Amino acid sequence: MQCRILVSCCMLYTQHLIAAAMIPDISHEVTINELLLQGAPLPKALCAMILAYINSYYVDTEFKHEAAQSVASFSNNGKLIAMGGRGGLVALWNATTKQYIKFFQAHYAPVSALKFHPNDTLMATGGHDHVVRIWDVNKTKRLSCLRGHTGYVNAVSFSPGGEHLITASDDKTIQFWDVETGTTLFTLNQHADFVCSAAFGADGKQLISASNDMRAYIWDIRSQEIVTELFAHKDEVNSAFFFEKDNKQVVTGSGDKTVRTWDVRQARVMTTVMHLHDPVRSAYFSLGGKEILAAGMRKGYLFDANAQHIIQKFNPRAASLYSATFGPRDEHILTAGSTNVRLWSLLHGSYQKKPLYL
């Protein structure tokens, strides 16, 4: 009986969305309250289930292209999606219209990393050919080729100001580059195994790295020294990222099938999420820090960062999932699998910017 009521309410809500699209000044929050509480009084638990459905992500678009096989990223303004694949190709799509724009040969080996410059005019790509290249996005013209790594390039990341780039590699090093000149300024080589990820902190003064040596390190860029060691995982650490708004919290994902959040100042674990059934390849905070998006080898997971329970699962419909990332405003999620890239949109995101509450 409750299932029938749930379906009926969801159908009513869908009808309301259609009406609201034509009458923008309707208050969704008031209407939802009327539907759930006045029109059809329901148990609070069932109301929560309905709102969870309303606030969930659904498959908006599936991109199938020979470039869409290993890594994908949003531009910072949310207008473009770039994806790279095993053939060394990078494809660009319009994120709004979901239309294919163009592709270009970025490497002659699989593309394993890509990231847009903060102003979105440039893009950095890294490949299994041990090379990093910087591109003019509009002209898809190569501007520089950064050589120095002797292993697969696993991550690229621009500094907040865009003047510097860091790259992480299977050669156990992190290299720090000047974007304009394409020269290496210094190399960090304290990791004992493959470096899987590296990213700048919000202030550009620190960077964080994750490695197969089961450790994540936070570095001071000026001194080039490790200032904090995060060590609690029991297998390789595949990703480590700061909370975007400050450098006080870190989230890590590991081959030990856990996601951990850390208090950086005390170098201690705050929470450990253990609901996954396969190794974690990436993990990110949402903009508000209340959710964590993790990519396992087979599925993606959205967690409540505090309660540590799964909010939603994402099925990439691919043999293997490589990454799952938020869009610029958390209204979209991008999953990159072995055979496709999927764009997931927030169900109510096109109609209401703020969360819905009973």
Any overview of this molecule?
12% of the residues lie in helices and 45% in strands. It contains three helices and 28 strands. The protein has helices at 2-22, 28-39, 44-54, and strands at 57-63, 71-74, 80-84, 89-94, 100-105, 111-116, 122-127, 131-136, 141-147, 153-158, 164-169, 174-178, 183-188, 195-200, 206-211, 216-220, 225-230, 237-242, 249-254, 259-263, 268-273, 280-285, 291-296, 300-304, 310-314, 321-326, 332-337, 341-346. The strands form seven sheets. A four-stranded antiparallel sheet has the order 1-28-27-26, with no helix packed on it. It has a four-stranded antiparallel sheet with strand order 2-3-4-5, with no helix packed on it. A four-stranded antiparallel sheet has the order 6-7-8-9, with no helix packed on it. The chain is globular. Residues 14-31 and 350-358 have low confidence and may be disordered.
Major beta sheet summary: 4 strands, antiparallel
Indicate the CATH topology of the largest domain.
Methylamine Dehydrogenase, Chain H
Strand order of the largest sheet: 1-28-27-26
How much helical structure, as a percent, in the residues?
Answer: 10-25%
Uncertain stretches of 5 or more adjacent residues: 14-31, 350-358
- Described by the principal axes of the CA atoms, the overall outline is globular
Mean pLDDT figure: 85
Could you state the CATH homologous superfamily of the largest domain?
YVTN repeat-like/Quinoprotein amine dehydrogenase
Distance between the termini: 22 Å
- Report the radius of gyration as a whole number of Å: 21 Å
The CATH C-level class name of the largest domain: Mainly Beta
User: What is the number of domains?
Assistant: 2
Quantity of strands, as a count: 28
Q: Tell me the structural class.
A: mainly beta
Question: What portion of the residues fall into strands of 2 or more residues?
Answer: over 45%
Q: Count the helices. How many?
A: 3
CATH-derived architecture of the largest domain = 7 Propeller
How is the quaternary structure best described? Answer: single chain
